[in-house]
Amino acid sequence: xxxxxxxxxxxxxxxxxxxxxxxxxxxxxxxxxxxxxxxxxxxxxxxxxxxxxxxxxxxxxxxxxxxxxxxxxxxxxxxxxxxxxxxxxxxxxxxxxxxxxxxxxxxxxxxxxxxxxxxxxxxxxxxxxxxxxxxxxxxxxxxxxxxxxxxxxxxxxxxxxxxxxxxxxxxxxxxxxxxxxxxxxxxxxxxxxxxxxxxxxxxxxxxxxxxxxxxxxxxxxxxxxxxxxxxxxxxxxxxxxxxxxxxxxxxxxxxxxxxxxxxxxxxxxxxxxxxxxxxxxxxxxxxxxxxxxxxxxxxxxxxxxxxxxxxxxxxxxxxxxxxxxxxxxxxxxxxxxxxxxxxxxxxxxxxxxxxxxxxxxxxxxxxxxxxxxxxxxxxxxxxxxxxxxxxxxxxxxxxxxxxxxxxxxxxxxxxxxxxxxxxxxxxxxxxxxxxxxxxxxxxxxxxxxxxxxxxxxxxxxxxxxxxxxxxxxxxxxxxxxxxxxxxxxxxxxxxxx
Length: 497
Ligand SMILES: *Cc1c(COP(=O)(O)O)cnc(C)c1O
What we know:
By secondary structure, this protein is α/β, with parallel strands linked by helices. It is about 40% helix and about 15% strand. The chain folds into three domains: about 15-55, Irregular (MYOD Basic-Helix-Loop-Helix Domain, subunit B); about 75-335, Aspartate Aminotransferase, domain 2 (3-Layer(aba) Sandwich); about 365-490, Aspartate Aminotransferase, domain 1, CATH 3.90.1150. It is built from 13 helices and 13 strands. The strands form three sheets. The chain has a seven-stranded mixed beta sheet, sandwiched between helices. Strands 10-11-13-12 form a four-stranded antiparallel beta sheet. Strands 8-9 form a two-stranded antiparallel ribbon. The protein binds pyridoxal-5'-phosphate. Its cofactor is pyridoxal 5'-phosphate.
């Protein structure tokens, strides 16, 4: 008779991970542990904790790509150990980035001759791209002012109050004053007339947005270009334009090829786009393209010797992964113009299905535009009992992540829910979402007005002291403020990127 012997050590290679001691000890959060743990246990524990993150595919808050073809996933994994900066060792990867720059520059109608290389660079995202474009404008402006013998220590940049946070970062990190054109009720993008009024001799550029983060609307770059050309003629200042096409740069060329927003307009000197938004690549890639060599001051460029040839570089970071560059090249050649156009048309169609479904409920005002980034931004018509933050909160229970946020000045009293339609958000999901939003509305209807009830109670206690009458707008502002505080207390970011 053979007697089998049981292994007694707590070894996951013998026991199942869940039978080991590793799943019952708490993991280090501050100091690194003294001892190692088996790889199976490390994998299982981390994997399981990550289950509590939301499902990226249902994250309707983000523009950033959450799905790519398995063939591209394979290319990405194969390049995961390649440092992009080692251009000598990985010359083909460098070549692929240069090809992407050329293709995107052509898409944006850069004035290039046949076979002429475009001026641009791959970045980690639009934020880095915007830092680089902003630096180029700042340096060009400083050089000009120095030549003229004028002070060059108070540069400013003109944008709408709807700019993405990276512009505020640029302004603070690189010491440029941010002059924001305020929004107003019913108009949530930069007014070109007001922007041009704000331009002065110290303005390094006006930044227009193609696809406002808040409601997807395209700013009127053509009008801005006209007005600024007139002002430049009058003043001799030559103020240029940058277009932040983070989300719209891969939409407009396919859906609205006639729309003039890019290098067709003479004052547009640089454009950024997020490869990881509608460029259809996973997070970690953006692009900045300059109109011509003259628009990127030579002193900002570093020259790397790349197989005996000169490879100019202009980035903030040194090492980074190569996978995203390769993935971008995959998408550009795999999809071609036809493929991108089909994807963008599908997104637009599904945005319309969602928009019409929401309109049918009769409960929402649509804040997004038909021409723009395929997203649906909407507000409750009546938020006296329940507001958009409650809709967002209850939708989470159905698995949907739909952010609610307030507009920037002077439209802070408007709260918006936003659903970004990405490639992987199919019609079935759009229809489901409408059904679930209807359920949420029904549920809210049966609930007491939470915050509003509290505010009314406060009002009544106040009434004993003095009669306080509030306008509907004041009540709305208070409700919004209370919810903002509640949400801010729970997490510091509002989930809108
Ligand atoms: C997303 C976004 C950015 C920031 O882009 P990242 O690629 O995430 O760094 C900047 N501007 C606009 C308009 C955006 O939508």
